[in-house]
């Protein structure tokens, strides 16, 4: 079983956050993760699953 993952890069001014999620995540879950990234600006990289 091959788990391919998607990488989403968010840029807020000069802050960058990288999200790695499984392909079966829904857009709602991705939006929640993106909001969480934007809220935690001190963390540069957060990885899921």
Written overview of the protein:
It is built from 1 helix and 3 strands; from the N terminus they run ββαβ. The chain is an alpha+beta fold. The protein has one domain (5-47). The protein has a 3-stranded mixed sheet, covered by helices on one side. Helix 1 (27-39) links the parallel strand 2 and strand 3 (45-47). The longest helix is centred in the C-terminal third of the chain and has 13 residues, at 27-39. The chain is elongated. The chain starts with a strand and ends with a strand. Mean pLDDT is 58; it is low at 10-17.
Briefly say what this structure is:
The protein is built from one helix and three strands. The chain has 49 residues and is of the alpha+beta class.
Mean pLDDT: 58
Give the helices and strands as they follow along the chain.
EEHE
Number of helices: 1
* Strand count: 3
Largest sheet: 3 strands, mixed
Which structural category fits the helices and strands? alpha+beta
Distance between termini?
15 Å
Helix content: 25-40%
Order the strands across the largest sheet as they lie in space: 1-2-3
Percent of residues in beta strands: 35-45%
Record keyword descriptors for this entry.
single chain; 49 residues; alpha+beta; 3-stranded mixed β-sheet; 1 helix; elongated
Layout: helices, strands, pairs:
Elements: E1 5-12, E2 15-22, H1 27-39, E3 45-47
């Amino acid at each position: 079983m091959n788990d391919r993952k998607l990488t989403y890069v968010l840029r807020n001014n000069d802050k960058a956050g990288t999200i790695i999620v499984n392909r079966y995540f829904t857009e709602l879950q991705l939006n929640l993760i993106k909001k969480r990234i934007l809220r935690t600006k001190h963390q540069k990289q957060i990885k899921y699953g």
